[in-house]
Specification:
With 212 residues, the protein is of the alpha+beta class. It has one domain: Box (Proliferating Cell Nuclear Antigen). Helices cover 26% and strands 36% of the residues. It has five helices and 15 strands. The strands form three sheets. The protein has an eight-stranded antiparallel sheet with strand order 10-6-2-3-4-14-13-12, with helices on one face. The protein has a five-stranded antiparallel sheet with strand order 5-1-7-8-9. A hairpin with a 5-residue loop joins β12 and β13. α1 packs across α2. It is globular.
């Protein structure tokens, strides 16, 4: 049986791919809680963690649109999900009224989940040793950025964006429940500032000096 914050499934489940083995969300016990991982063919990877969650098994499931919609977080209440066998129970915990539950079927994936643990470990190691100044930048598809921001926005109102040299762009909210990584199309030299903005800076500096 699996129990965790359903909003994490809604967010992580936004990044499943169209074809096996990327169609699924991988859910497993981790550090006393529940870890969720999904990847859209390696282009965008999302990792969620619920420290308060419980997991007696490892599951790889293909979330339906109906399930993701039911799991999405709302501001007026908290939501949790319990997966037992092939049934998911999504419960909305209202503060001023009784709780409301909705049962939905769970489709288990046949294809094993992609081996991405080593890639994630390499990213974590690099983040820990990244210099403060990067020499290259990543070029990212706007559509992937929009999806990442929309999904992360299910759990937070503000985001921190960071990236190492030509590597994944990491989106992380105020909480530590979710990390979304957008893979770059290419690694490129950091673009030079255009002349017009440099001129603006010089003019502004001159005005400050004259006024002082």
């Amino acid at each position: 049986m699996l129990q965790f914050n359903s909003a994490l499934l809604a967010a992580v489940g936004s990044f499943t791919g169209d074809y096996a083995p990327y169609q699924s969300v991988h859910i497993r016990p981790h550090c006393g809680g529940v870890l969720l991982v999904a990847s859209d063919h390696g282009k965008v990877t999302a990792v969620g963690f619920d420290r308060q969650g419980r997991a007696d098994e490892t599951a790889t499931s293909i979330p339906s649109n109906e399930l993701l919609k039911a799991c999405a977080g709302i501001k007026t209440a908290e939501r949790g999900i319990t997966i037992d066998g092939d049934i998911a129970l999504v419960t909305t915990y209202y503060k001023a009224s009784s709780n409301k539950g909705k049962e939905l079927p769970i489709q288990r994936a046949v294809a094993p989940f992609p081996e991405i643990d080593n890639a994630l470990a390499a990213c974590v190691q690099r983040w820990g040793s990244t210099p403060k100044l990067s020499e290259t930048a990543g070029r990212y598809r706007v559509a992937y950025l929009e999806r990442a921001i929309k999904a992360a926005g299910l759990l937070t109102d503000s985001l921190v964006l960071s990236a190492f040299d030509g590597g994944p762009l990491r989106l992380q909210g105020e909480t530590i429940e979710l990390i979304v990584m957008v893979m770059p199309q290419t690694a490129e030299p950091i673009p030079a500032l255009p002349g017009w903005i440099q001129e603006f800076s010089r003019q502004n500096a001159c005005q400050v000096l004259q006024s002082s």
